[in-house]
Design brief:
Blueprint: H1 4-16, E1 20-27, E2 30-35, E3 46-51, E4 54-59, H2 76-79, E5 83-91, E6 97-101, E7 109-114, H3 116-129, H4 137-144, E8 147-151, E9 177-184, E10 187-194, H5 197-204, H6 213-227, H7 239-245, H8 251-256, H9 264-268, E11 275-281, E12 287-294, E13 304-305, E14 308-309, H10 314-333, H11 343-346, H12 354-367
Parallel strand pairs: 1-7, 7-8, 8-9
Antiparallel strand pairs: 1-2, 3-4, 5-6, 5-12, 9-10, 11-12, 13-14
Helix pairs in contact: 7-10, 7-12
Length: 378
Amino acid sequence: MIDKDGLDALIAVLAGRGRTVIGPTVRDGAIVLAEIGSGQELPYGWGVELEAGHYRLRPRPDGAAFAHSAGPQSWKTFLHPQRELQWAAERDPGGDLVVRENDAAPPSYAFLGVRPCDLRAIAVQDRVLMGGPHGDSRYRARRERAFLVAVECTEPGATCFCVSMGGGPAAGPGYDLALTEVLDEEGHRFWIRAGSEEGEAVLAEIPHRPADAATQTAARDGVAGAADRMGRTMPPVDLRTLMRETLRAERWNDVASRCLTCGNCTMVCPTCFCTSAEDVTDLTGEHAERWRRWESCFDLEFSHLAGGPVRASQLSRYRQWATHKLGTWYDQFGSSGCVGCGRCIVWCPVGIDITEEAHALDRERRTAPPRQEHHDGG
């Protein structure tokens, strides 16, 4: 076990090992992920109120540090940055064009407060950006240098549905250290476990004491209770089959009438990874740069070809996103692209709820009249 002083010591040890510590902190009316230098910057005493299209901070009387749900950012912001220089080109005095790739050393991050849903999201992005024939070397360099401190959830948000997506509030594999926060009459403390050799080495450097049985039981009970209090659910069906069998459902027209195609859901999603290239130059034309930036499948230009966009309507763009996230992602990467964090629900300006849409598609599929089979005579 460690206490609040132990959490301070953890941050100091990680920083002393040359890592930039990123954790949750209160800023601009939200709990955001940012560089922190001490445990005092953690959001002690703050929770969140979530609903479709709604996010508010609310004070907590118990002083918990991690009793809040996923905020507007995910760890994708640091591992797969929103905008990144690829190369720069300029003419030397002799008039030759010299191109230099961006070979800056990647940062060495320590992520403090990685939720189990985000731990799964990092694993999803690892499969996409580190595996296969088109791996991203810069993502790999950042990811291999990252130290992950997971925090298990004991209080799910109203928009959380990780259990429906095969996950849960308990930390799965992939962490270096895992914390479970416990607050009761015995005090405020954290049950901490190592999941890697470096995690064990870091734990050995911070003040800790053996975890008593009561603390371990309280921690496990808190996590198990959170699994039973999810704010949202997906329909208990094979989502791949549901997406495939409802491509012509009337419900897509309903959601298209509400969708603004703003792309917020893709920007806050911890697994969306699409990018586009952007070339810029100075006024003289002597210096040019290529930047990679996040792109959204809700952008009309995303599927633009010589004859125009492939998906010109709101319906086609929302359907593409939802069916890929819940269905065809399996075909490409062997898992769902959704981890049930609920960010897309919270940060949609009009409150479109992907779980509500999935339930509506399932109801329509079950109540639709059977298709008529046509046979040739004779």
